Amino acid sequence: MSAVSSAAGSGIVLGIVVVFLFQQFGMLGLSDLLSTLVYFVVAGLVGGVVFGGAATMLVRRARARAAATK
Amino acid sequence: MASPRGARRSARLVVTLTATVVALALLAGPLVLERTASATASPGVSAPASGAFRYIYVDWNGASHNISSAGTPAKAFSFKPGETGHANFTFVFSGGTVPTGTSAQLQLTYLGLVLTTSNAAVVPSILVPGKGTAEVNFSFGPLYDAIEGAFRVTASLVASSGGSYWSQSFYLFVKAPYLLESAAVIVLLILLIVEAFQIALALREARRPPPPGTPAPPSPAPGSTTAPVGPAGTESGSGGSGPPPPPPAGPGGAP
């Protein structure tokens, strides 16, 4: 559970960082507060869900493999 | 021995997921932005709002750079933060004369906050009634070392009462001299890569079978009569499924 929450948190941070990165590359404008918040929330959700899902899958696979080894 | 293959697979998974996030953001960002821009953009050489102007031109750093050509971040004018930009306003009021106190203004906004505002008074033309010109000098001021990326600037003609006759936004693409923000983002990305690598390493270690001499950890089978040895007090009296502890044997305790 802790690994999954850590991965989801990392995904949220990565999503927000990606938004800033796009602004620096000139692909996004962050002038309006509302649209910026929408970008942050969407990117954070996508990152959190993707990374949390990946971590859940990895943990399940590792547990199954450990059980099979025993 | 499946551990190297598993580690490779998990590393591939992390790379795939990162690429997915970046691709989603690449696809969704410009789409949302395009929709927002098309909803808010004014036409280039403006038909002014409420018919107050015959025309308005605002040129950025020269006659060939009308601000209407930089309405999206992808088409932003490049700008060095240390330099001073010039916006030349030229307009003709359809009302006949330029109202006194009219000024031209440039505002830089970021995250909903107005960072800088530059103003200049409008100079009415003597020859053409209703025609006015203004030149606004624009710079980032003390922020110029840290600012980088696409920033929206709003050009507007402001009445003396504070109301706006007309406004239009355009974008400037600014490169900070020391790439401070880019450096911060790159450090964060390196941290992310290190984290992903460490996760992959930890998974690989977890999958590796223990060496032959290592004793197996105690794992009590369900219904077994021996409780695992643990720290004092952790297992005693925890449910009563095991046998009661033997009574202390004293010297004359047995019959």
Record the SSE blueprint.
The complex is a heterodimer of chains A (70) and B (255).
Chain A: H1 2-24, H2 33-69
Helix pairs in contact in A: 1-2
Chain B: H1 3-40, E1 53-60, E2 77-79, E3 85-93, E4 103-110, E5 113-121, E6 123-124, E7 131-138, E8 149-158, E9 164-174, H2 180-207
Parallel strand pairs in B: 2-9
Antiparallel strand pairs in B: 1-3, 3-7, 4-5, 4-8, 6-7, 8-9
Helix pairs in contact in B: 1-2
Question: How would you describe the overall organization of this protein?
Answer:
The complex is a heterodimer of chains A (70) and B (255). Chain A is mainly alpha-helical and 70 residues long. Chain A is 86% helix and 0% strand. Chain A is built from two helices and no strands. In chain A, helix 1 packs antiparallel against helix 2. Chain A is elongated and about 55 Å long. Chain B has two helices and nine strands, in the order H-E-E-E-E-E-E-E-E-E-H. In chain B, helix 1 runs antiparallel to helix 2. The longest helix of chain B has 38 residues. Chain B is rod-shaped, with a radius of gyration of 35 Å. The C terminus of chain B is likely disordered. At the A-B interface, helix 1 and helix 2 of A face helix 1, strand 8, strand 9 and helix 2 of B.
Q: What are its keywords?
A:
heterodimer; A: 70 residues; mainly alpha; 0% strand; elongated; B: 255 residues; alpha+beta; Coagulation Factor XIII, Chain A, domain 1; five-stranded mixed sheet; four-stranded antiparallel sheet; 2 helices; 9 strands; disordered C terminus
